Task: inverse folding
């Protein structure tokens, strides 16, 4: 199996049952690394284990509690949401990718990817999504596009199965930059906006635009180093 | 919308919660006709309604109790199962079709189709499957291919969405920047390198790096305008 290693993160899950459902879907589709941000208590006699099927034997007990920062710093992050922006006036939830297109896109990526799902009631917040690299939305009925958390995760993992389960022909592998290096470039870009005197109220929006662009491009280590150097030197020059 | 009308049947469901989950997935993917064979009691204050999301308003109260015979007599039936036969020595669970191929196949069908799902613990029996027209199996991990009932139905309905949902909430991204605008950004980037004092012998290589990066990202018009503006202003500032 080539392609990326794929983890699943659940942020602030409200009900243990959904965590169990997601663990089961992970086992059905060949994934194992479950990360939990602010999870509910997972009682071995409770719903999480009850809903997990055979994932109760490994994925659920092996799940790790992590911080949201650790996701952003450690992975190419894909935030899953039913609520998208429809055009480029906001980059919090736009551009987005469907699960099928995401599977295509990740095929060419070598590195650590994390699919991030939000709380049952309200999903991922704008503040959370703004920090993630890529946005994924499941096409569903315009009238009622909001899937249950466990069902949404199941659909996304089902679409990614060709990366995690089946044998595929060797896909192209690029030397995607480390998430930490990409975050460094994002920091440098922020500094560049400051040095440029970009209006303060516009900076978050411009940074999100840049994040979404890089989120689609999967820059190599060399690309990240080069751009980071350019922005650093430009910032220095403008400050002189 | 062309193609068949599609109903969903659940045979001998053991837990009301799964019936609710299936009703929700139906609403998410534009279906409405839910048929129940030997259902458990669906208490309006219980799990079926609790798991149904907005399907509690229509699909669940409108569900009809029917006999297995009525399914066989009234519909082109598709039995969904994780357990298949591997070759033509038995035709109970063979040949089977994947949900994606089923969507293709049903596109050409005009008439009433019913997707039939079985009980949580053991799925559809051989005797039941033998009476259905078609067998559908979700490709999943060889080690653990058995999805939870509600999750399996969600995946199948998701794949059939192109037959059932006229309009999804995720329109295609249409506003890719014009090639001319992207070239303008490339020119501006070149000027930025000059203003920055980037060594002349390195410029062509750095420009190519930038071109390859944007070539993968397919920037929107707004992204191109924003970045072009930033590079222009940075160049001006460095020249001052």
Result:
């Amino acid at each position: 199996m080539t392609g990326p290693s794929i983890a699943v993160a659940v942020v602030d899950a409200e009900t243990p049952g959904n965590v169990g459902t997601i663990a089961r879907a992970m086992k059905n589709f060949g994934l194992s690394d479950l990360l939990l941000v602010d999870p509910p208590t997972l009682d071995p006699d409770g719903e999480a284990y009850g809903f997990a099927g055979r994932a109760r034997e490994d994925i659920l007990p092996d799940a790790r509690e992590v911080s949201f920062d650790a996701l952003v710093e450690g992975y190419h992050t894909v935030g899953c949401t039913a609520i998208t922006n429809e055009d480029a006036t906001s980059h919090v939830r736009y551009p987005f990718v469907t699960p099928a297109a995401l599977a295509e896109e990740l095929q060419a990526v070598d590195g650590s990817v994390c699919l991030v799902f939000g709380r049952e009631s309200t999903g991922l917040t704008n503040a959370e999504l703004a920090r993630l690299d890529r946005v994924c939305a499941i096409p569903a009925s315009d009238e009622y596009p909001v899937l249950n958390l466990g069902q949404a995760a199941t659909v996304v993992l089902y679409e990614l199965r060709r990366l995690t389960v089946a044998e595929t022909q060797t896909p192209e592998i690029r030397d995607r930059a480390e998430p930490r290096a990409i975050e460094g470039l994002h920091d440098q870009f922020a500094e560049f906006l400051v040095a440029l005197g970009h209006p303060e109220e516009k900076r978050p929006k411009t940074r999100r635009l840049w994040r979404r662009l890089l989120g689609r491009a999967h820059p190599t280590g060399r690309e990240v180093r080069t751009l980071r150097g350019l922005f650093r030197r430009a910032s220095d020059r403008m400050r002189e």
